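Sharing a chain and its predicted structure for anyone who wants a worked example. Both blocks are below, sequence first, tokens second.
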Amino acid sequence: MRPMAPLTRRTAVAALLVAHLVACGGEPRGTAEFCEELRSSTALLTDTSDPAALVETYRRLDSRTPLRIKDEWREITLLLERIVSFDSTDAEATQAIIADALRARASLDAVAAWAESTCKVTLARPSATPPPSDTVALTDGPDTTPFEP
């Protein structure tokens, strides 16, 4: 007959692990809770007048996003963080942001479709590309005057 001690230790370790995961897990990633949070945050998610507040809203929801769209939501959050903090006078940084935005298009579409079908919330897609800047030079030379035909 097997001794009960190993089973008891395994059970205790499993219980501690579950308790630890629950304690560290933060907000639940339940769909109903997220949909409610999404409904109450819709205006904040589409207001680009305060970029820092927009990013903070995405970050806050990122920890609660259901697993079905967790990766896509995270990609959008990271993209918005980069858009807010990049140097628009740096041509390479601008091109990198544009490339990142194009790669994130599928995530933007997936999140919008999921929100519509699951939460009945229509998310206006934020512009994932930075606005054009007159300060970005198109040449490597010292003349940065825009070309006029």
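Comments welcome. The first helix runs from residue 5 to 24.
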